[in-house]
Write a structure and sequence with these properties.
alpha+beta; eight-stranded mixed β-sheet; ABC transporter substrate-binding protein; four-stranded mixed β-sheet; SBP_5_dom; globular; DNA-binding; SgrR_HTH_N; about 30% helix; SBP_5
Length: about 550
């Protein structure tokens, strides 16, 4: 670092033109002896920073020319740190105004590292939490699934429950009680045992205001421990969905004792553990003692790169235009706020949603999305019921959405449709943490543009969406919420998955027809990967199981 500082002094004093300083002048400028000046100039010349010709003979001055802008030296040094994976040190080396330049060069240092069992992947924003109790977005939920285990697992292909921490379970008393038996010998990453006591404490944490899906577990009345490896759950009503409630990221099992920084540096029992976590990077390291198959990679490095253009060149990156892609498992939708003056009347809401849906604002040739005719890609919901209560020309509406690239063209298309009818639309885009604080902005918002992505279990995902989506619950209000709760209670009492899916579809019918929620599009979810990446299969949530990824030599 001292050599760089001395070069900055030379550049500041002499610029990039030829100059003819003597050694005494250089020694005074650099505050060192003439002997050290020669040594330092030799080092600078060896690195290509200067052209230096010492004067030979009496009366002949030396010739000096600075060849590099000082700021590029800092980027060179952080580049070396990046190549070694030291992102935090690289950022510390740079002033804030240069960190953007660093991010622009970051993709050159990412991808597969020297260790052929290490992979580096970009993510679009900083993580809010890795505490299972608090996660609500699909990014954090996916990472929690890599770090923690749950009682049950779910096979996306067969759509069936599979054993996980519990090797067996059974319903008792018409599914008002469920008993689970745990595998022996499982430990958390810190070596503490994972037993029935830890399971019970973890699931009791779900009855806490910090849990965004708390409503989904309100039927739990008591937990009974039979021994260290067996426990029962007493429920308020018959619930054939109870084991499926326990496969969600929120229901992950955590240790009884947790450090103060658990949300950032959690300890789980999953296939990976957290090696480091900073605002710029999360590093996951394989758990060598995992009770199932050990992950095929040693490490997964996730780097926060918020600009899509800077995500080029990575070994794996999520991209809707990627070659390996599928349709979003649910939809991108619009929710009107019935509490707003212009939308208090149900007929006005229906008129507005019909205006925005007939015809669809999504064109048939859109490469990133498909027009939605239902809440799920294979559903066909009835159209919004007709209404004659048009909003008056000159009306002004406010739409809130969050920072997701796919939302911006949709918001602009909605604004254009409304402008043609003489209605103005203010578009407000929030960062995700602010978007989650719904109570701060909901009272002043007319329309919310959001998106739902199911996890691997379509059945329970629908129950979770309709039962606990905060925007939908606020829009439905007390009366609509009670109607929804009654429908979902009947669904959980139904042992047939096919009958439950049919009932969810009926809920979707009245949500759309009555103007509570308007499906707009099904986005494509895709991934672009290097040919060296193997074992990559996208789940319904648009992510891949990290433990199955591996790197093969490119032919």
């Amino acid at each position: 670092m001292r050599l760089e500082q001395q070069y900055r002094l030379l550049h500041q004093h002499y610029g990039e033109a030829d100059s003819h300083p003597g050694l005494p002048a250089l020694a005074a400028l650099l505050n060192c002896s003439e002997r050290n000046v020669r040594l330092q100039l030799g080092k600078m010349q060896a690195q290509g920073w200067i052209a230096w010709q010492a004067g030979r003979g009496r009366g002949r001055l030396s010739t000096l020319r600075c060849l590099r802008a000082p700021d590029t030296l800092a980027l060179d040094s952080v580049g070396r740190l990046l190549a070694q994976g030291e992102l935090e040190q690289a950022f510390a080396r740079l002033p804030p105004e240069q960190r953007g330049q660093l991010m622009a060069q970051l993709s050159c240092y990412l991808g597969a590292g020297n260790n052929r069992r290490q992979l580096r992947i970009p993510i679009h924003r900083q993580l809010t939490t890795l505490d299972p109790q608090q996660v609500s977005s699909r990014l954090e939920a996916h990472l929690v699934r890599q770090l923690f285990d749950r009682l049950c697992d779910f096979d996306v292909h067969s759509q069936t429950l599979q054993p996980a921490l519990a090797h067996h379970w059974e319903a008792q008393h018409d599914a008002c009680r469920w008993r689970f038996w745990l595998r022996p010998g499982i430990s958390f990453h810190d070596g503490t045992p994972l037993d029935a006591q830890a399971v019970a404490a973890s699931l009791r944490r779900l009855d806490h205001p910090a849990c965004p899906w708390r409503r989904q577990y309100r039927g739990l009345r008591a937990i009974r421990l039979h021994d260290a490896l067996s426990l029962s759950f007493e429920l308020a009503d018959s619930d054939w969905l109870w084991p499926q409630r326990l496969i969600t990221a929120n229901a992950s099992i955590v240790p009884l004792r947790r450090a103060a920084g658990f949300a950032q540096l959690p300890v789980g029992s999953g296939p990976f553990r957290v090696l480091r976590h900073s605002p710029q990077r999360l590093t996951l390291q394989a758990n060598p003692h995992y009770y199932r198959e050990r992950p095929l990679l040693d490490e997964i490095d996730l780097w926060v790169i918020d600009t899509p253009a800077q995500q080029q060149g990575f070994d794996v990156r999520l991209d809707a235009a990627g070659g390996d892609r599928s349709l979003q498992s649910a939809c991108t939708y619009l929710v009107p706020n019935p509490q707003r003056p212009l939308l208090r009347d149900a007929a006005s809401r229906r008129w507005l949603l019909r205006l925005l849906s007939q015809p669809s604002v999504i064109t048939a040739d859109d490469p990133l999305r498909r027009p939605a005719h239902g809440l799920l890609p294979d559903w066909q919901q009835p159209a919004v019921a007709p209404a004659a209560a048009a909003l008056p020309p000159g009306s002004q509406l406010r739409l809130v959405t969050y920072e997701l690239a796919a939302f911006q063209p949709l918001a602009q298309a909605l604004a254009a449709r409304l402008a043609a009818a003489g209605i103005g639309l203010q578009i407000v885009t929030l960062d995700y943490p602010r978007y989650e604080r719904l109570q701060e902005w909901w009272p002043d918002t007319d329309l919310v543009l959001g998106s739902e992505v199911l996890h691997d279990d379509r059945d329970y995902s629908c129950h979770e969406w309709f039962g606990s989506n905060p925007t939908l619950r606020l829009a439905l209000g007390e009366v609509g919420g009670a109607r929804m709760d009654a429908a979902l209670l009947a669904i959980q009492r139904q042992p047939s998955p096919a009958a439950r899916m049919a009932a969810y579809r009926q809920i979707g019918d009245w949500l759309v027809a009555e103007g509570w929620l308007l499906p707009l599009s099904h986005e494509y979810q895709g991934v672009i990967a290097s040919p060296a990446v193997a074992g990559l299969t996208l789940g319904l949530n648009g992510w891949m199981d990290f433990s199955r990824l591996w790197l093969q030599d490119e032919a």
